[in-house]
Amino acid sequence: MNPDIYDHYGISWSRMSESDLVQPEPGFYALGIGMYAQLNRGSGLVPWDSKASWFKGKMPDHKAGKTFYVFEVPEKQDGG
Fold first, then answer.
1. CB atoms closer than 10 angstroms to residue 50
2. Distant-in-sequence contacts of 34-38, Cβ < 8 A, 24+ apart
3. Could you tell me if residue 35 is inside a domain?
4. pLDDT for res 4
């Protein structure tokens, strides 16, 4: 992660928290491929239960270069 680059190009960002991984708010999220691999592998290298991650097993909606997967978390649907 290189916040200076993001700031230089005016990219609004914030570091993801555990709650963002488990129950993300609607919007766009970018995960590095390393983090995505750890979540899907259940490697134990992440400090939370990766089985609970919203992103586990989901295919990215977009790719940014060869290093980031971008996911769109939809608005919550009423009903079931």
1. 20
2. 36/60, 36/69
3. yes
4. 80
